[in-house]
């Protein structure tokens, strides 16, 4: 951002809330729908008030300002309401539909796979689907296998969808705002363990461009690529590595699809060494995808094999010791960087 | 019911256009001139016609894999339709969709759909838009007896009911979900009985009778326009052809086909209107001739149109950013 903007410290949840609030004020066609996004629908004492404000409280306070026509609780009918969000987007509204946990895509896959992502293409460009699907990804909450997945590879694999994931409040607000103005189906992945993490967030309206990664730490010895929680872990790992004389460059992808290959390749051209840290499962995951891109387009830059830091290829375990072993963390990233640097 | 002459002629012309269009597509497909799959609507004309005759500009429909009839009844251009089915650049979807995804959003036709049950959620969305944008527009959701068993149908009925959405669910019960008879795949006799399960009005009508369809649709559509919410209409109908062209139709008996064709909607319309002196055979024949020419012209248009440029293979995946 060229202009010096006033900022304040907020949580990721507050940043998301503000993005929704500002855009709903700006654009009367934006509506919010999902399970318990307000909660307590039709109860007299909660008519313009909420019971939950979202399962993690992210959408608290919106129904009071915008009312229950624009902030709509839905039944537990993902096929119907995610599909309705697509249909509404095709016919004049800009819906934000919340898919409470990304695994619930199992209940409504068709709406995105065969409908929302493809309608514009199949109709020869004569339709558009400006819909935002906000969904929780990630582990660390001991929520176990069905509530802890990271499914952006599946979303990204579907042509016609865009997929973003912020690692901090400023990007959370800017990416969601960009998504609401993009005019296409955008899946906004929100990490469950990040909602209460704090950071500086600019006031007012602004966008973080979709499709552009951020270099969050410049360095010359090794490139650490992460997204969402692993982008944060990579910065922590970089601090540790600096103490050993390893100067890491950290890239926060911010957008999974369309992927900013240029920023990755430029960095690898500079450092010659690459670590990709990704919380999605390794088979056909994001880390393997990026490794493939670099092997194909940046081979000459590489001075060591690409190191991948991912979970094992298994469902997410429940027991805390197992889940912690499963998840990428700063230690695993730092170890991979050392290996890439031949230490 | 009393319909004026102009309306009667429009009903006839729509049904004949659908019939002649589908019969011609069948012919062209048999000659190997149409790529992919086609699912023909011949026999079911009264349903699309009777329903869509009650719609106006701004109303929308969602359709099925058997979408040519809905497309025509909603006012889409037959030249663009034929070109699309042939895969040409001048098609309604620039050759990118084909028969199963034929659409014209500018005419409120939100697309044929290759997924059984794909339409109902979209229809709820279109109805939600209409309601929140303060219009009296409605969305008609066409679906088959097969789709009546999909989860999406049930979820959509419930969602439409609780939100009082202006959507009209029209079940085209043609007796078979692909090769599987409705007597097997459906737990109940009348799909319309499911309406009660969602607290909305439901009715079954003779889908071979365009007047019966028209009347039931009018009531349901008016109800939706008045803000009184969704309805379910089941039209008992029959498709003369297979599920897809190439289907051997072993699940049909000659007797069944003969019996249903004796109830042909177009023939019966002619009989009823001429016997009651509402229209003359000459007037109806004139429509036939005009439509026959329009279909010939559509095929000629498709034939003479170019295929899309190869560079179009990955265009229109995304829209440019909104203002």
Write structural notes for this entry.
The complex is a heterodimer of chains A (343) and B (323). In chain A, 36% of the residues lie in helices and 19% in strands. Chain A folds into two domains: 9-202, Rossmann fold, CATH 3.40.50; 214-340, Rossmann fold. Chain A is α/β, with parallel strands linked by helices and 343 residues long. In chain A, strand 6 (162-165), helix 7 (169-182) and strand 7 (186-191) form a beta-alpha-beta unit. In chain A, helix 3 (78-90) runs parallel beside helix 4 and helix 8 (229-242) packs across helix 12. The model of chain A has no long low-confidence stretch (mean pLDDT 97). Chain B is of the alpha/beta class and 323 residues long. Chain B has one domain: Rossmann fold, CATH 3.40.50. In chain B, helix 9 (210-225) links the parallel strand 6 and strand 7 (231-236). In chain B, helix 1 (5-30) crosses helix 2 (45-52), helix 1 packs antiparallel against helix 11 (265-275) and helix 4 (78-85) packs across helix 12 (281-304). Classes of the chains: A alpha/beta (343), B alpha/beta (323). At the A-B interface, helix 3, helix 4 and helix 5 of A face helix 5 and helix 6 of B.
